C-alpha cells in the first residue's frame, strides 16, 4: 500500500469518528459509558454461573472481554469495508488495503475508551496491582493483528459471496462461547469435554495475554506469546495475499 492510501486511511478514519458524534447528546462520553454498562451487566449475570463472587468475576471478565469485543469489531467492520467503499474505489485511485486499515483505526480508537473504562472499574474492584500490568500494551498486539488479518480474509469472501456475513457472525459467536472469556476454565474438570476444548482452544492463549497480568498478577508465558503471535502473523499474511491476489477482480463484483 502506497503513502497516499495510508494518508487516506488516516484522514478518512478521523472524519468518520467526528461524524459519528456530531448529533449525539453524550458524544465521546458514550465510549466510556457503553462498555462500562456492558461489563457490569455481564458480570452480574455470569458471576452466578461461574460460582465466583461478583467482584472477582468482574475482574476476570473485564480482562479478556475488552480485547475480544475489539477483535470482534475489527473483524466484522473490516469484513464489510471494501464492499462499503465501492463508490470510493470506483472514483479514486486508492488501494483496497486502505479500507480495512481505516476500519482498524476506528476500532482501535474505540478500544482506547473501552480500556479506560475497564481500568476505571478496576480501581474500585482490584485491591492489589502487579507490575505485570505493564505488559498490557504489548498484549493487545496479537489481538489487533489477528483481527485485521481475519477481517481481510472475510472481506475477500464477502466481496464474492455476500451471504457469508451471517455465517461469520455465527462462527464468532461460537468461538466466543467456547473460549475462556465468559467462563473460567477452572470450573471444568481437565478430563471433561469442556476442559479439553478450553485447553486446545486458540483463544485460550489470547485470553491469557490479559487474564494473567490483570486477574492473576502474572506475566503471560512464552507459550502464550508464541501461539498468539504465530496465529496473528498467519492471519495477516493470508489476508494480505488474498486481497493482493484478487484485487483486479474486485471491481467486477462491487
Q: What are the key terms here?
A:
single chain; mainly alpha; globular
Describe this structure as you would to a colleague.
By secondary structure, the protein is mainly α. The chain has 12 helices and no strands. α6 (98-125) packs antiparallel against α7. It is globular, with a radius of gyration of 19 Å. The two termini are 20 Å apart.
Explain briefly what this protein structure is.
It contains twelve helices and no strands. It has helices at residues 3-20, 30-49, 54-79, 81-84, 86-91, 98-125, 136-160, 164-178, 193-200, 202-216, 222-246, 250-253.
Shape descriptor reads globular
Distance between the termini: 20 Å
Low-confidence stretches: none
- Radius of gyration (Å): 19 Å
- Sequence of secondary-structure elements: HHHHHHHHHHHH
**Assembly category:** single chain
Class by helix and strand content? mainly alpha
Portion of residues within helices: over 70%
Task: Tell me the major beta sheet.
Answer: none
Average pLDDT figure: 83
Please indicate the percent range of residues in DSSP E strands (runs of 2 or more).
Answer: under 5%
Would you count the extended β strands for me? Answer: 0
Number of helices: 12
Amino acid at each position: 500500500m502506497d503513502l497516499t492510501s495510508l494518508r487516506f486511511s488516516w484522514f478518512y478514519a478521523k472524519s468518520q469518528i467526528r461524524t459519528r458524534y456530531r448529533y449525539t447528546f453524550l458524544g465521546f462520553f458514550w465510549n466510556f459509558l457503553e462498555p462500562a454498562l456492558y461489563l457490569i451487566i455481564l458480570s452480574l449475570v455470569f458471576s452466578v454461573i461461574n460460582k465466583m463472587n461478583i467482584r472477582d468475576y468482574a475482574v476476570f471478565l473485564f480482562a479478556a472481554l475488552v480485547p475480544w469485543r475489539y477483535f470482534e469489531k475489527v473483524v466484522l467492520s473490516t469484513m464489510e469495508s471494501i464492499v462499503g467503499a465501492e463508490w470510493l474505489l470506483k472514483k479514486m485511485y486508492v488501494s483496497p488495503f486502505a479500507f480495512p486499515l481505516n476500519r482498524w483505526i476506528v476500532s482501535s480508537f474505540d478500544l482506547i475508551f473501552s480500556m479506560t473504562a475497564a481500568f476505571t472499574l478496576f480501581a474500585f474492584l482490584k485491591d492489589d496491582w502487579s507490575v505485570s500490568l505493564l505488559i498490557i500494551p504489548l498484549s493487545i498486539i496479537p489481538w489487533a493483528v489477528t483481527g485485521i488479518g481475519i477481517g481481510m480474509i472475510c472481506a475477500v469472501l464477502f466481496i464474492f459471496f455476500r451471504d457469508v456475513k451471517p455465517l461469520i457472525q455465527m462462527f464468532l459467536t461460537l468461538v466466543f462461547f467456547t473460549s475462556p472469556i465468559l467462563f473460567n476454565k477452572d470450573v471444568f474438570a481437565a478430563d471433561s469435554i469442556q476442559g479439553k476444548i478450553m485447553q486446545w482452544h486458540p483463544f485460550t492463549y489470547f485470553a491469557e495475554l490479559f487474564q494473567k497480568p490483570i486477574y492473576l498478577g502474572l506475566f503471560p508465558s512464552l507459550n502464550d506469546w508464541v501461539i498468539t503471535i504465530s496465529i496473528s502473523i498467519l492471519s495477516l499474511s493470508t489476508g494480505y495475499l488474498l486481497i493482493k491476489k484478487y484485487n483486479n477482480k474486485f471491481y467486477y463484483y462491487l
